[in-house]
Design brief:
206 residues, alpha+beta, NADH Oxidase, 4-stranded antiparallel beta sheet, 47% helix, 14% strand
């Protein structure tokens, strides 16, 4: 039984891929609950659970968040990349956006919760809190994938984070945005992306 579970876990890790196109169908309540519950089962630095999650599922906020994600992604393509996208690439991407790219029935915004402090070194504490949040993100993505639900991790909100703080009505000095996750049933099966670097290039033994 243990071996079966282990194989299933490895399969989930090895087959998970980012999904950016979802069918227009809401997730079941129990699926959303399982995704969120998996987040708080992640490792957490010092056992302090300095994370906070905002689940977005109302029609009004789904639309507002989708529009902000598109704006942030456009900024990434045009102002952040060392080699910006061409107009042709942008126009092709915009057609995909019009067809529903990034539009999900369920989003989760992930924050570090710094309203309570536990350590003398604030900078280290904040990095530890981010590590906890990142572990929670991976748990949610794997939990979703194991249920046949696609997920996408958006880091681009950090490029215009003040607009996201305004949307979520969160005070930046209390909580720091880490990422926004999109979840939904995939439009099509997404194969995992091949890694550019093998283990020999990124691992050194001592």
């Amino acid at each position: 039984m243990i071996l079966v579970v282990f194989v299933e876990l490895l399969e989930a890790i090895n087959t998970r891929a980012m999904v950016r196109e979802f069918i227009d169908q809401p997730l079941k309540e129990e699926e959303k609950q399982l995704i969120l519950e998996s987040a708080i089962r992640a490792p957490t630095a010092g056992g302090n659970e300095q994370w906070y999650f905002i689940a977005v599922e109302s029609k009004e906020y789904l639309e507002k968040l989708h529009n902000l994600l598109v704006d942030a992604q456009r900024l990434y393509f045009t102002n952040i990349l060392k080699i910006p996208w061409s107009m042709e690439q942008i126009e092709k991407w915009e057609k995909k956006v019009e067809a529903g790219l990034y539009k999900a029935p369920f989003y989760v915004a992930v924050f570090t919760d710094l309203r309570s402090r536990f350590y003398m070194k604030a900078d280290v504490e904040e990095r530890w809190a981010e590590q906890s949040a990142a572990a929670a993100i991976e748990n949610m993505l794997l939990a979703a994938h194991s249920m046949g639900i696609g997920g996408c991790w958006f880091g681009v909100p950090l490029l215009m984070e003040d607009k996201f703080y305004d949307l979520f009505k969160v005070k930046k000095e209390e909580m720091r945005l880490v990422a926004v996750l999109a979840f939904g049933y995939p439009k099509q099966k997404q194969p995992p992306r091949q890694r550019k670097k093998g283990l020999k290039e990124v691992v050194r033994s001592l």
